[in-house]
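Work Package 3 committed the consortium to producing structural models of liganded targets before the mid-term review. Because experimental data for this complex are still outstanding, the team generated a predictive model from sequence and the ligand definition alone, so that downstream docking and mutagenesis planning could proceed in parallel. The input record is reproduced below exactly as it was submitted to the modelling pipeline, together with the SMILES string for adenosine-5'-triphosphate.
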Amino acid sequence: MRLIAENLGGERGGETVFSGIGFAIEKGQALVVTGPNGSGKSTLLRVIAGLLPKAEGDVRIEGGGETFPTIASACHYLGHLNAMKTALSVTENLRFWRDFNGDGPLGVEEALETVGLGGIGHLPFGYLSTGQRRRAAIAKLLVSHRPLWLLDEPTAGLDKASEARFAGLMAKHCAEGGIVVAATHLPLGIEGMELRMGETG
Ligand SMILES: Nc1ncnc2c1ncn2[C@@H]1O[C@H](COP(=O)(O)OP(=O)(O)OP(=O)(O)O)[C@@H](O)[C@H]1O
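The resulting structure, written out as tokens with the ligand in place, is given here.
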């Protein structure tokens, strides 16, 4: 399986944010997207995820077989917001995502243990601290059967120990044949290709 972009362009509010982006990411590889504020990192991730229309070019999955014929079927997108219901418990949220995305490598309890949140699954998501919310959102990736991780500033709000743990999880995902595309300002501690987005304005 590979993720291919050819001459990809994106726009916001009718203005071109980026153009001519091309890459080929094989399974087991990571692409780290860097660049200053406003350079289009989030826009690129959202275009790849299909959450925004592309302005030109193409981005697609090849070799995903019957299980992952499209990016939509293959990806889990972790944006700035965590996409969790504040009134539901952490466990209930993760059960929802596990059902929605297809059973992933870990069960809910195991995933919570893995991100250091064992024992608090019963709490409403809204009770969690900023970093705990991000860790619970990372647990979504672990309960989901999704080989393509699209991550927007995934380590924002994480402490050093959690950052290091997440670096290990991304490396493991790649080692098991996954693909990671991550936009970041912070070093992520993973080996990967770098795509540097340009300045705007
Ligand atoms: N809904 C919108 N309408 C118009 N312009 C927008 C919209 N959303 C974002 N933009 C503009 O698109 C450009 C790219 O924004 P984007 O969020 O992709 O940048 P980024 O590289 O992720 O920035 P940061 O590092 O601050 O997160 C910015 O100039 C931003 O102001």
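Reviewers should note the following from the model. The chain has a mean pLDDT of 93. These observations will guide the Year 2 experiments.
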